[in-house]
Amino acid sequence: MTTAGNAFLLRPWVKPLLFVLCLLPLAWLVVGALTDRLGANPAEALIRSTGDWTLRFLCITLAVTPARVVCGLPALARLRRMLGVFTWFYAAWHLAAYAWLDMGFDLTEIVRDIIKRPFILVGFAAFLLLTPLAATSFNAAIRALGAVRWRRLHRLVYGIAFLALVHFLWMRSAKNDLAEVAIYAAIVSGLLGWRLARWWRERRAALSQRAQPPATCFNR
Ligand code: HEM
After folding, report:
1. Each residue of 127-168: pLDDT tens digit?
2. How far apart are CA 87 and CA 89, in angstroms?
3. Res 214: pLDDT
4. Is the minimum distance from the CB of 47 to ligand 1 under 6 angstroms?
5. pTM over 0.85
6. C-alpha 47 to ligand 1 mean position (Å)
7. What is the pLDDT of residue 3?
8. How many separate domains does the chain show?
9. Is the Cβ atom of 123 under 6 angstroms away from ligand 1?
10. Closest CA to 62 of 203, 197, 202, 190
11. Ligand 1 centre and the CA of 159: distance in Å?
12. Ligand 1, atom nearest to 110 Cα
């Protein structure tokens, strides 16, 4: 099963297929906007939907490692980078939709609004942190940074997930509508909790190995 799953994921058309699938939400929104099917307030629908998709892609990207380990599918790792870049892609559309439809691309107003409304400031901070991760998702950048520094930089994703949740919570708490926020918070906590548990297990295993007496010719 896992061998078949890995063989499937390694097929050359899987990456292009995923690429097209990741573009579908944007295509759906563009078609909806052009055919006037985004409801009574299309600007709000565009800003909110791109925000929702940013959060969904963030969750999917965070789910790759647990899914890879739990399902025994190492080939899933080759799809993670694309999913991460699409998280940034939808965040950029979300920011652009806000800057255009809410603020009319007035830079002074945008800066004033970001400073004035804390939930927007938190979203903007998440976007700023996401940008270096997307910019270093390419082989040349990974080589230039070195694996250790690259991995350290990409730990920012935990902070980004936290800020994204705070941004969402802050926005929805003003509307007294927290059901969806609770679902995303549970998903993100589950995914980050899994990583924390794995890190703890590995640390304990490393410590107990170090505590063992050195191998001799008798117990090797
Ligand atoms: C990683 C970055 C970000 C994520 C994950 C994110 C996510 C979200 C989500 C999930 C929503 C709520 C959608 C809904 O109600 O269904 C939202 C709303 C919103 N976000 Fe973001 N966001 C991010 C960055 C930003 C940035 C950079 C800005 C602007 C500077 C921004 C401005 C807004 C605005 C104006 C709303 C709509 C508020 C309303 O309709 O009252 N967000 N965002």
Report:
1. 999 999 999 998 999 999 999 999 999 999 999 999 999 999
2. 5
3. 63
4. yes
5. yes
6. 7
7. 86
8. 1
9. yes
10. 190
11. 16
12. 30
d(CA 38, CA 15): 30
| 13 domain-assigned | no
- Let me know if 90 is exposed, middle or buried by CB neighbors in 10 A (0-12, 13-18, 19+): buried
Q: 47 to each of 67, 83, 92, 180, 205, how far by Cα in Å?
A: 30, 20, 11, 17, 46
User: What pLDDT, on the 0 to 100 scale, is given for residue 57?
Assistant: 98
Tokens (6 digits) for 121: 């400031």
- Whether residue 215 is contained in a domain is answered as no
190 belongs to a structural domain: yes
Question: Is 18 within the bounds of a domain?
Answer: no
- Amino acid 219: pLDDT: 45
**Protein residue with its CA nearest to atom 32 in ligand 1:** 120
What residue numbers bound the domain in which 84 lies?
42-63+80-210
State the distance from the centre of ligand 1 to the C-alpha of 77, rounded, in angstroms: 28
Average pLDDT, rounded, for the chain? 94
Query: Which residues, in sequence order, are CB contacts of 60 under 8 Å at separation 6+?
Result: 83
CA separation (Å) from 196 to 50, 64, 108, 114, 169? Answer: 29, 15, 42, 33, 23
48 pocket-lining for ligand 1 (C-beta < 6 Å): yes
DSSP string for 91-140:
HHHHHHHIIIIITTT-HHHHHHHHHH-HHHHHHHHHHHHHHHHHHT-SHH
